[in-house]
Amino acid sequence: MKINNIYRYSSRLLVLILILGITVSCSTRRNTGLNRAYHNLTSKFNVNFNGQEALKTGEIEYKKICKDNFIATLPIYCYPAKEELSSIYPSMDRVIEKASKSIYKHSMFFKGKEYVKPIDDAYLMMGKAYFYKQDYVQAQRIFSYIATTHKDGNCVEEARIWEIRCALRQKYYSRAEDLVNETKYIVQPKNSKKLNLLYAAAGAEYEMTVPNGDLETATDYIEDVLKNKPKKDFRIRMHYILGQLYEKLEQPAAAHEHFLYVTKKSDSYEMEFNARMHLATNYDGSPTRRSEIMKELEKMLKDKKNEDYKDQIYYAMAEVNRIDEDTTERMEHLAQSVAAYKENSFQRTHSSLQLADLYFDQEKYPQAKAYYDTATSSMPKTYPNYDAIKTKSAVLTELVDNLQVVVVQDSLQRIAKMSERDRNNWVKNKIAAYKAEKNRKEKEERDKELALQSALGYSNYNQLNNSGNSGKWYFYNSTLMAAGKTEFIRKWGTRKLEDNWRISNKQQMSFEDMADLNNPNKAEEDTTEYDENGNPVLKRETDPEKERFYTQDLPLTPGAVDTSNRMIADAMYQAAIIYFDLLNDVPRGMDMLDKFYKRFPEHELAPSVLFIQYNRYKEMGSSKAETPKEIILTKYANTDYARLIREPDYYQKLAAENKKLETQYEETYKAFTGKQWKKVISLADNALAVCTDKVLRSKYAYVRAVSIGQTQNKDAYRAALQGVLSDYGDQKVAELARILLIDLDPAPVVEQTPAVIADLETVGKSPFTFAPKDWHYITLIVNVHKCNVMTLKTDISNFDREFYSLQKFSINAFYISQDEQIVTVSRFENMETAMDYYYAISKNEKFAADIKAGNITVYAMSATNYSNYYKQKGIRSQYGEFFNENYLGK
């Protein structure tokens, strides 16, 4: 019995000793051989292994996101737009989590030295994860920490190479140059193919990225990459880039060699196709070579395999035309390239821009505008000169809209001047032409369906019963599928997969309209609209087979003609200003002003037109300046234009006077805040007698009115406020005056004045402030009738758990009106981190449908703006415009 007890106690003691030994061996505070062995083994084959697997998964997903623009020179590495990266976040966050865990639990850092080698790997994979997430600042910190603190580690060289890439992505080109030079001397002694390859690739990326990069040096670096035997995909990419660089360096033989290699080795048909395109267009300008190239490109057009690449083939033809300086053929091929668009947005954008620029150079602005619109509709934000192109497109849109007003109104006036008989004949001809075209299209569709029926024949449905596949689901049964497709085409012809596909000739129709058509009990409602006098207003006719469709806009009365002429005059004036100020097209601007004055010499804008003509002719040193000058000095002698001709420094004097009045307003405002009401009234009266600036006058009038409210009776106060409304109804102060009129009462007037005073400082400004470095919230404005807020909060929580597992966000919801709740995700360090989340959640399929439908509106808001938005209902409608302008750059 004693022996058994001794054995039992001894066993327990042994287990306790073993547990104590293992516990002691797990310590990172004691630098012993047993501790180092344990932590090296555990970190490498447990935590780090899982992190590396997550990194591999993330890199595979990253490659799927990448889409190359073969029109431009390919970069060494692909960098997708940041808003496209949300799918890699789960994997990269897991990498960061595992790396952090490895460092926290297993690092043994004593006297400036790390004794657990896999810790360097943990830091490195953490830096890579941040780099892939395009958080280059954090990645740079980690790579720099490895290089400076873990100098004896096994990752210093690779960390330096990644640091070069971080500096390039942040456009720190001087820092990148220093790193390239320094890293060379720590990589070469290692004699490692992997490090040599990564360094050469980083060096090539440097030369291809910096503004003054040397392409010949870049080719040398890429040749070094190839010497170190990269993986197949990267090797083929390097050959393709070498081909492009040698083309730029005008070495066609070398370019031909590398593109030929790509066509033989590439597994990607897209890359192979583009390499063939380069081979085909390797053009020296000779007639023989031109004939060979065009024949090869025509052959490629006919190849069914290239159906999705016709846009690029036509573009290649246009490039041959460019070298030949054949602008007409080039424009035709570019137009065909745009028309052949399938999925390549880069190509459509590039072809559209080139064609738009050609039309622009030819001063064919309507055509240029159309192709700029096409380009900007699919242009990625990373496209070169994105902002300038968008601006040019907007300018041309405004110009063409004005020119179109002139053309349309001139046409309408011409038709209105016809005799009634001729006008009726014109209308009948238009209706007949429309019906003929409609009948032609219907016949074409019937003939097409008959041809299909004839070719396919009628299906024999007996085969459905004898197929022998009755036990299978019908979509797995190829016989049933083929028979069903044949019957569908026999009955319907070829139809595009879209809403209302049964209707061949669609017109816009709402869901309610379609429901009403099928409801025999739906009574006809009186939908007549009435004007402010109670008179019925005729609805616009939308049926091209009705006569009124063509006559409803004709100016058939003197009043209608006047309105049409005003529209023409305004459009001509605006078009002239655009020609001058935005397009720098002086001849067309002058021509437009000449036409304006000939047609509308008595128009209110006539003196302005004459003055512009005078200044332009004067700048050109033309004697023609005398004609508009004489008209202004005689016909418009009392206008500012005449005074400017007589006194060229008149505006400078006016500006000096207004500056003086602005200084006086500061004194007036100071007296206003100091409640020196009589002084305010006196200063305001003096200023209003001489001030010509309307905005400044409105401010003086407002503070004067409020001061009258403090010193005189209610009637005088009311009259002063009403004067502000009548004289300055289009100014910001009018709204403040309207509020005071509503609440007109001696007591609250005094109490409300300080708040109203504060508003004067923000006249003409947004109620929101742009503070990109402040703490931010993501807000979702939710229509509670269309979207369940509890479900939404759960979905956001799941989204955060999947894509932002390292961050701890708070999700809250509050009612801000009877119909809306605001859901907040908080909080974010600054605008940049908030916008990363904004793009990620906006593109996520869980939320995209509701956002597109308008059930949810997503904003990023600084803490200050969020507070104002929540508290002040009246300013909420202005935030959308503020957000678009300051956060989305619209």
Describe the protein's architecture and organization.
- By secondary structure, the chain is mainly α.
- Helices cover 67% and strands 4% of the residues.
- It contains 39 helices and 8 strands.
- Strands 6-7-5-8 form a 4-stranded antiparallel sheet. The chain has a two-stranded antiparallel sheet with strand order 1-2.
- α5 (136-149) packs antiparallel against α6 (156-169).
- The termini are far apart.
Record keyword descriptors for this entry.
four-stranded antiparallel sheet, 890 residues, mainly alpha
Topology (elements, then pairings):
Layout: H1 2-25, H2 33-65, H3 89-106, E1 109-110, E2 113-114, H4 118-132, H5 136-149, H6 156-169, H7 173-187, H8 193-209, H9 215-227, H10 232-248, H11 252-265, H12 269-280, H13 287-302, H14 310-324, H15 327-339, H16 345-361, H17 365-378, H18 386-416, H19 420-456, H20 462-465, H21 478-492, H22 511-517, E3 529-530, E4 536-537, H23 548-551, H24 558-582, H25 586-599, H26 606-619, H27 626-635, H28 640-646, H29 650-673, H30 677-690, H31 694-711, H32 714-727, H33 733-742, H34 746-760, E5 776-783, H35 789-803, E6 810-815, E7 820-828, H36 831-843, H37 845-853, E8 856-862, H38 863-871, H39 879-886
Antiparallel strand pairs: 1-2, 3-4, 5-7, 5-8, 6-7
Helix pairs in contact: 2-3, 2-4, 3-4, 4-5, 4-6, 5-6, 6-7, 6-8, 7-8, 8-9, 9-10, 10-11, 11-12, 13-14, 14-15, 15-16, 16-17, 17-18, 18-24, 19-21, 24-25, 25-26, 26-27, 29-30, 29-31, 30-31, 31-32, 31-34, 32-33
